[in-house]
Amino acid sequence: MKEVGIVRNQNGNKAQVSIQRHAACGDCGACHVGRDKMTMNAFAVNAIGAKEGELVEVEMQFTNVMKAAMIAYGIPLVMFFIGAVVGFYMLNPILGAGESPMPAFFAGLGLTALSYMIIRALEKKGVFTKGYEPHITAILDKCD
Question: What's the pTM value of the predicted model, to 2 decimals?
């Protein structure tokens, strides 16, 4: 996946790049860009030495984009279903709720929240940083 952005600042071999949102993105919110905000800031590996103000091409491998989406959306979804099944078949008899879907729903929500907390904790420890960082691959317009 290739994007074009402007280097806003650099720190060693990393650079903060401001990337324009595409119309094809819609308003999914996955990149934390709202309707009113047309740019997002990302930190990218700056192995080619791009400087502030330069227009650059930023790339992240498609497989890594899909892996990141699976971590962010797939794991919590699976945890919701596991929680719902456990809640329905194990909590209903314990709580004496009969066939009520409420224990299943709340158990699913609980495991979903727990999965997001675990993912966030692993992210803070740097487990997901190496393979999922975008890289600046080309300088499109040099700053003089």
Answer: 0.65
